Amino acid sequence: MISACAKSEDSGSASNSSAPASAGAQVVASAPAGPTCSIDQYGGSKIDLKTAKVGFSQSEKEANPFRITETQSIKDEAAKLGITNLTATNANSEFNKQISDVEQMIDSGVQVLVIAPLNSDGWDSVFAKASAKHIPIITIDRKINATPCKDYLTFIGSDFAEQGKRAADEMAKALGNKGKVAILLGAPGNNVTTLRTSGFKDEIAKVAPDVKIVFEQTGNFAREDGQKVTEQLLQSNPDINGIYGENDEMALGAVTALKGAGKKAGDVKVVSVDGTKSAVQNIVDGWASAVIESNPRFGPLAFDTASKFLSGTPVGEDIVIQDRQYDESNAKTDVNSAY
């Protein structure tokens, strides 16, 4: 196991058991099962991360707990390691701005890039600039559709299809394996949405064929959109039994819509992905059945990966983190470990 902290978890039990409360502050990665990338393969030379010029590109405005926690984790770990030359930008959900932000950082002489990409495609101009200077690019939380150890160094993030499968298992359990379900889709154009959707659909079809998906519409990973889409859903499908939100913000909007429609806690089963404190509190209050975590605290593992690579140690091209989950068995005791 590669761990950002001294503590590690058994990867064999991560998907089904709740982690200790302290695990909310950790990002734990599986040992690389696939190819690795070395500095000789990628190009460039060894440098001391502490003295390097580092760039971090955030994709979305910090208006939800995931992005707030993610950015703070990067900044906190940089400070902890004594990295004084960190440039952090925010694209405010504008893809052209993110590309421009990253290109400007490359032009300014950054030696390492950590990117939380808004979209999975459209990065060719960045790769061309970074490749010419042998700048390692670490992507976090969303994948870029490109070649690792060539266009970028590595991806660090969750198994999004597995998150969808775990959400499906929880939904099937909550519904007793039958009923009508709606999906609040994440923003289009990235692999998180695609995989959380396919994982959920594939698993529901496998474990609960009598659970029918009758409604799908994007809520753009936003609370306001999640509320509006759910209001529409309740008009077209007033007998809906379950709502799968592909992130907590949309699910929180859905709960607001359910309350506005006069529904009672538990009338419609809600399952979502992220692990924010507000979403876990909804389990405690009876408005949600389960929340699958997607841990945003990438700082320790991102910088540990960069440090190893820059010192000459090969790193995995695809580093998958282990996420916990919350349900009625642990939500009340563990809500304060959520972010």
Summary keywords:
single chain; 339 residues; alpha/beta; six-stranded parallel β-sheet; six-stranded mixed β-sheet; 11 helices; 37% helix; elongated; disordered N terminus
Q: What can you tell me about this protein's structure?
A:
This protein has 339 residues and is α/β, with parallel strands linked by helices. It has eleven helices and 16 strands. The protein has a six-stranded parallel β-sheet, with helices on both faces. A six-stranded mixed β-sheet has the order 10-9-11-12-13-16, sandwiched between helices. A two-stranded antiparallel sheet has the order 1-2. The N terminus is likely disordered.
Straight-line distance between termini: 24 Å
Largest sheet: 6 strands, parallel
Oligomer: single chain
Q: Based on CA inertia axes, which overall geometry fits?
A: elongated
**Helical fraction:** 25-40%
Number of strands: 16
Radius of gyration equals 20 Å
The class by helix and strand makeup works out as alpha/beta
Outline of this structure?
This protein is of the alpha/beta class. The chain has eleven helices and 16 strands.
What layout of secondary structure does this protein have?
Layout: E1 2-3, E2 28-29, E3 36-37, H1 39-42, E4 54-58, H2 65-81, E5 86-90, H3 95-107, E6 112-115, H4 124-132, E7 137-140, E8 154-157, H5 160-175, E9 179-185, H6 191-207, E10 211-218, H7 223-236, E11 242-245, H8 248-260, E12 269-274, H9 277-284, E13 290-293, H10 299-310, E14 315-316, E15 318-320, E16 325-327, H11 331-334
Parallel strand pairs: 4-5, 4-6, 6-7, 7-8, 8-15, 9-10, 9-11, 11-12, 12-13
Antiparallel strand pairs: 1-2, 3-14, 13-16
Helix pairs in contact: 2-10, 3-4, 5-6, 7-8
